[in-house]
Amino acid sequence: MKAEEAKKIADQALQNLTDALKNGKSERITQYLAMLAKFHRYSFGNVLLILSQNPNATHVAGFSTWKQMGRFVKKGEKGIVIIAPMSIRPKNDKSEGEEQSDQDKPILRFRGVYVFDVSQTDGEPLPEPSRVSGDPQHHLNRIKEQIAERGITLDYDDVPPGADGVSRGGRISIRADLEPANEFSVIVHELAHELLHRGDQRPASKTVRETEAEAVAFVICQAIGLETGSAASDYIQLYDGKAETLASSLDRIQRVAAEIITAMTHAEGREHAA
User: Fold this and answer.
1) How far is CA 72 from CA 68, 78, 111, 112, 116, in A?
2) What is the pLDDT of residues 195-208, one digit of tens each?
């Protein structure tokens, strides 16, 4: 495939993605964001406490919060202890309207409370953003070969909790249990990070970086015929990206997407010639 053809494929896919972002958040991502809002943001110290007791924890919440989300803690599960602040108001004999001294003001104390990871619960499934589906066929091997040709290591180890993959600069790590379509999409997403975000041109904004990487993955997935649905727009909007964010990066996205498509089709052409 010539570069011009690859550019046309990228242009059409990016127009589709722009339209999806302009249409706003899908019902699925809206439900997912509403779920995330129920999970507290824990302090660094509590994060360390959680990971020391359950290194595989992904979503933790208290007993009542899980109940609100239609889930219940399984019988016999041991809670994860974290530290929570509590305000204690000292007793005083002052009548209403009398000025309070510093000794009369609420006192901040801390106590241990229990939270539970989602893996310790049963019940209604948690909402998730859409995922890519379909069969990448031989293209999964093609993208792995392209990564190897670029001198980048691909492995299935040491992926951060809650992530599907991570780009480390010369090394890409992917979760080992992904379905083939998702594996392909995540690999391309992390490859886009490697190609776009490892030099002086790295955008400072994470929103921009994730928008660029996911847009490249969207283009390549559409190019090989995978069902993308709202997966890419859901992911981008999860990082607060929108059509304007995408528009400002179109040239960079188009260039890298066309480069990957061209490389994949050249590899296929070499096999047919052999």
Assistant:
1) 9, 13, 23, 21, 10
2) 999 888 789 999 99
Q: Is residue 215 within 8 Å of residue 253, measured between CB atoms?
A: yes
How far apart (Å, rounded) are the C-alpha atoms in residues 70 and 127? 12
Query: What kind and span of H or E run contains 114?
Result: strand 107-117
User: What tokens does 190 get?
Assistant: 């992390």
Q: How far apart are CA 128 and CA 126, in angstroms?
A: 6
d(CA 116, CA 54): 10
Helices (H), the chain: 3-22, 27-37, 44-53, 63-68, 139-149, 180-196, 206-223, 231-238, 243-248, 250-273
Q: pTM surpassing 0.85?
A: no
**Beta-bridge mates of residue 111:** 84
